[in-house]
């Protein structure tokens, strides 16, 4: 056998076969083996379900039996004693930790103890409940229709009663009065009185436009107070006057009378007021206009006469 024949003989095993039309032959496809599906066993399913339910029930019962409230730790309270916080929470010795509602505990404390601003509740196994209190730093004074004075928080909730003399130590809310005040409940604004014809005859000015609804006035107050707290200037404001909701007025430490304009962009306006006053001289006083109506991008300042 010569070299050419030997090469042909060796190469032939690797040569691919071709179909009669000259195309490569298709490889045979693998066979598929079908196996029958397992039959559904209702009894087996119920047994598994019962087993899972038994495990869950055992865990719940175990936590109810072994994890009970035996220790209540209170932190952050100065106006109230830990015992008062505990009593207000509604937690009883031996209550199952699993059944305690943190939201309900928080609501109980805030409803019964008005000077509490925020409540955080944590549960620590096996037997401890931690209650962290944040008390109100600043409250605001508002007059009622019967000439009594009441203290509110920034959300408009009645915190306590006070008198006219003590009210001067707080930011006074002017331009709206409340009625039927209940400590721990949201304040209810009294509708403004409209002068009668006989009062008008004696020189009382009769408004030409219908008065702003009392609820809207109180809502404006809450928006202003929230903006003050967001900007950290709530303790230096002597009064907030919403008599004219288009020209809301503040008195800042008896040094500046500040016009906020209407209730739009209050956070921005109060922030601009704070920034501007920080740049003023220590003994400067005057009028500040942060309504951004006369000067859209500037804060207006005018010293008091004689200053």
Polypeptide structure, described:
There is one protein chain. Among the domains are: 66-135, Ubiquitin-like (UB roll); 140-191 and 212-302, 3-Layer(aba) Sandwich (Rossmann fold), CATH 3.40.50. It is of the alpha/beta class and 307 residues long. Helix content is 30%, strand content 22%. Residues 3-14 have low confidence and may be disordered. The strands form 2 sheets. The chain has a 9-stranded mixed β-sheet. Helix 3 packs across helix 4 and helix 7 crosses helix 8. It is built from 8 helices and 12 strands. The protein is extended.
Mean pLDDT level? 83
How is the main sheet built? 9 strands, mixed
Give the distance, in angstroms, between the N- and C-terminal Cα atoms.
127 Å
The name CATH uses for the topology of the domain at 140-191 and 212-302 is Rossmann fold
Q: Give the overall shape, derived from the CA principal axes.
A: extended
Strand content: 15-25%
Which class of the domain at 140-191 and 212-302 in CATH terms? Alpha Beta
How many helix segments? 8
Sum up the structure in keywords.
307 residues; alpha/beta; Ubiquitin-like (UB roll); Rossmann fold; 9-stranded mixed beta sheet; 3-stranded mixed beta sheet; 12 strands
Protein topology:
Elements: H1 3-11, H2 42-66, E1 71-75, H3 82-89, H4 102-112, E2 116-124, E3 128-135, E4 140-144, E5 149-152, E6 158-162, H5 164-167, E7 171-178, H6 197-201, H7 214-230, E8 237-241, E9 248-252, E10 256-261, H8 266-279, E11 286-289, E12 300-302
Parallel strand pairs: 1-3, 4-7, 7-8, 10-11
Antiparallel strand pairs: 2-3, 4-5, 5-6, 8-9, 9-10, 11-12
């Amino acid at each position: 056998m010569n070299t050419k024949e030997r090469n042909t003989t060796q190469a032939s095993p690797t040569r691919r076969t071709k179909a009669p039309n000259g195309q490569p032959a298709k490889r045979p496809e693998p066979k598929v083996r079908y196996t029958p599906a397992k039959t559904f066993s209702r009894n087996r399913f119920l047994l598994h379900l019962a087993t899972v339910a038994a495990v869950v029930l055992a865990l719940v019962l175990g936590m109810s039996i072994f994890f009970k409230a035996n220790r209540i730790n209170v932190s952050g309270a100065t106006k109230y004693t830990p015992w008062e916080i505990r009593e207000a929470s509604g937690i009883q010795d031996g209550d199952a930790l699993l059944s305690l509602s943190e939201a309900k505990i928080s609501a109980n404390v805030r409803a019964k103890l008005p000077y509490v601003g925020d409540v955080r509740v944590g549960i620590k196994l096996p037997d401890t409940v931690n209650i962290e209190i944040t008390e109100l730093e600043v409250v605001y004074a508002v007059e009622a229709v019967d000439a009594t004075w009441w203290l509110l928080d920034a959300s408009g909730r009645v915190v306590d009663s006070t008198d006219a003399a003590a009210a001067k130590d707080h930011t006074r809310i002017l331009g709206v009065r409340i009625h039927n005040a209940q400590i721990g409940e949201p304040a209810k604004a009294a509708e403004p009185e409209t002068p009668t014809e006989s009062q008008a005859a004696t020189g009382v000015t009769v408004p030409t436009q219908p008065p702003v609804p009392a609820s809207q006035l109180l809502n404006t107050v809450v928006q202003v107070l929230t903006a003050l707290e967001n900007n950290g200037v709530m303790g230096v404001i002597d009064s907030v006057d919403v008599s004219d909701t288009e020209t809301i007025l503040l008195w800042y430490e008896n040094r500046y009378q500040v016009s906020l304009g209407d209730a739009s962009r209050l956070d921005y306006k109060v922030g601009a007021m704070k920034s501007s006053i920080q740049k003023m001289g220590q003994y400067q006083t005057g009028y500040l206009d942060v309504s951004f109506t006369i000067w859209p991008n500037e804060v207006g300042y005018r010293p008091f006469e004689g200053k």
